[in-house]
Amino acid sequence: MFKKAMIGALLLGATQLALVAPATAATEVFWGIWPVEVEPGGDLAIETKAAQGGCTPATPATSAGFAAPIDWKAAGMWGGHRGYGKAVTTPGKYTANFTCNDGRKGETLTFTVIGTPPGSTTPKPTTSTKPATPTKSKPAPATPAKAKPAPAKSKPQVAVKPVGAPQTGGGAFAPMAWDW
Fold it and tell me: What's the rounded Cα separation, in Å, for the pair 131 and 164?
């Protein structure tokens, strides 16, 4: 009886594995781009880790928002790969992608080159064509400076010397003091 139960459990496990394995192989490859908002011409970094949902890159990461395709270099543990590049100087939203050694595509990521895109209209501040008229104001009358009162003299404080351990802050932990 025990043998039949074990065989059934093994068959069930193999069936589940057969159903789940193809689903995970078809998933997109996770990777990152930093920062997601970059200054025009600013520095960008990309990273993927094969052991954590990434892959080994076969192609550079490409985007219209990159000044040039970003090449990958092996970095760190978990099959990590990193690359560094520059953003274009034209503001806007851009997407980036790459291909893995096994043919999968990296998840399409979006990043923004901040600023006002060319050709967009921004409202200009309204200015008045009428010249400003000067206003006449009377000078404030001079007020005599008031004398500051002399500071009150206080009595000097009497120094009190502690008598014992409670007045000096205890002393219960003296054997454990860190004064070496």
Answer: 81
For 2-44, the pLDDT digits (tens) are 555 555 545 445 444 444 444 444 567 889 999 999 999 999 9
Alpha-carbon distance of 101 to 72, in angstroms, equals 12
Distance, in Å, from the CA atom of 106 to the CA atom of 61, rounded to the nearest integer, reads 9
- The yes-or-no verdict on residue 176 having pLDDT over 70 is no
Sign, CA torsion 120/36/108/82:
positive
Q: What are phi and psi of 167, to 5 degrees?
A: -80, -20
Q: Which is it for strands 73-74 and 62-63: parallel, antiparallel or unpaired?
A: unpaired
Non-local (6+) Cβ contacts of 174 within 8 A are: none
Q: Where are the beta strands (DSSP E) in 26-178?
A: 32-34, 37-38, 43-49, 62-63, 73-74, 80-86, 92-97, 109-113
Pairing assessment for the beta strands 32-34 and 37-38 based on DSSP bridges: unpaired
Instruction: Reply yes or no on domain 28-113 having CATH 3.40.50.720.
Output: no
pLDDT tens by residue, 111-167: 999 987 666 655 555 555 555 555 555 555 666 566 666 666 667 776 766 666 555
